[in-house]
UniProtKB/TrEMBL annotation:
<feature type="domain" description="Prenyltransferase alpha-alpha toroid">
    <location>
        <begin position="16"/>
        <end position="76"/>
    </location>
</feature>
<keyword id="KW-0677">Repeat</keyword>
<protein>
    <recommendedName>
        <fullName>Prenyltransferase alpha-alpha toroid domain-containing protein</fullName>
    </recommendedName>
</protein>
<feature type="domain" description="Prenyltransferase alpha-alpha toroid">
    <location>
        <begin position="210"/>
        <end position="281"/>
    </location>
</feature>
<dbReference type="InterPro" id="IPR001330">
    <property type="entry name" value="Prenyltrans"/>
</dbReference>
<feature type="domain" description="Prenyltransferase alpha-alpha toroid">
    <location>
        <begin position="133"/>
        <end position="191"/>
    </location>
</feature>
<dbReference type="Pfam" id="PF00432">
    <property type="entry name" value="Prenyltrans"/>
</dbReference>
<dbReference type="InterPro" id="IPR008930">
    <property type="entry name" value="Terpenoid_cyclase/PrenylTrfase"/>
</dbReference>
<dbReference type="GO" id="GO:0003824">
    <property type="term" value="F:catalytic activity"/>
</dbReference>
<dbReference type="InterPro" id="IPR016648">
    <property type="entry name" value="UCP016175_prenyltrans-rel"/>
</dbReference>
Length: 288
């Protein structure tokens, strides 16, 4: 437990991070990044679990959170939230419950029938989830549960993902860091080996900036493309060129309340940003 906390704590204030997360835990086992609200939700709860898991710290009252996530998996729940809840259950040691609940995914996501998320609902990145984003989260959750798609489903997903191929990356109107990573991760998990994309390298900033951008040769850097580009380079067995500068960028994003914002400009903390910031620090430390 102590080593990860100490190592990451050399670069950012992890005690402040833990205080930020802990004071936003509610009696129902869920979390809400706006501490004054009782509107606990799957997204914040998922990232609370991921933060504790990344830091190697025992999760508080896991049985309450397992119940919260299990109850949150309903037919009306957005498919991205269902996938997050399933992965969260696995991380808390409730894989059997996650397997039991996994069938509900196919009411909204059934690639064999050409259904790539019916009634998409909420998104991590875009306001309303894209079918590619939903595909990424479902694939990620099934991998955590050790559930496999059958050959017809795998082929259908691959064909669908390849529709987003755009030059050196993946995207709708142009390749973006987020969609390129989501597409490549999905293909890798399904057992395919697409060619390496130079997109992540083309979005890396040096000099006074650090971080990564969503599209090549642009400014400013943001946290979410920095997280996805970092993951993308790892996926392709590549290394960042400027790890120290990327750590510097992340350090500037920690707010006084202990959480992290998404850009160098003013912004509020949330659990998603906080997990991603810690994950980038953890990754960059390997290259120092």
């Amino acid at each position: 437990m102590g080593s990860k906390l100490y190592e990451i704590g050399r670069y950012v204030n992890v005690n402040a991070v833990l205080h930020y997360v802990e004071e936003r835990r509610h009696e129902d086992g869920g979390y809400c990044f706006v501490s004054v609200l009782d509107d606990t939700n799957v997204n914040d709860t998922y990232y609370a679990i991921k933060i504790y898991n990344l830091l190697g710290i025992e999760f508080p009252e896991p049985e309450k959170t397992i119940e919260f996530l299990g109850n949150a998996i309903q037919p009306q729940t957005a498919v991205v939230a269902i996938a997050m809840a399933l992965e969260g259950l696995v991380l808390l040691g409730a894989k059997d419950l996650a397997r039991e609940k996994s069938e509900i995914v196919f009411t909204k996501y059934n690639p064999a029938e050409g259904k790539f998320a019916v009634g998409l609902g909420g998104s991590e990145e875009f306001g309303t989830a894209t079918p590619l984003e939903a595909t990424y989260w479902v694939t990620k959750a099934f991998d955590a549960i050790n559930l496999k798609f059958n050959p017809d489903e795998r082929d259908a997903i691959r064909t669908f993902v390849m529709k987003f191929r755009n030059g050196n990356g993946y995207g709708v109107k142009q390749p973006t860091t987020t969609m390129t990573y989501q597409a490549l991760f999905t293909l890798y998990i399904l057992g395919y080996r697409p060619p390496r994309s130079p997109h992540f390298r083309n979005c890396e900033l040096c000099g006074d900036w650090g971080g990564f951008t969503e599209v090549p040769y642009s400014l400013p850097p943001y946290l979410e493309p920095t997280f996805y580009a970092t993951r993308g380079l790892e996926l392709q067995n590549e290394s960042p060129t400027y790890p120290r500068r990327h750590i510097w960028f992340i350090r500037q994003l920690q707010n006084p309340n202990g959480g992290f914002r998404r850009s160098l400009e003013l912004g509020i903390s949330n659990f998603q940003n906080t997990y991603r910031a810690l994950a980038v620090i953890e990754s960059m430390m390997r290259y120092l």
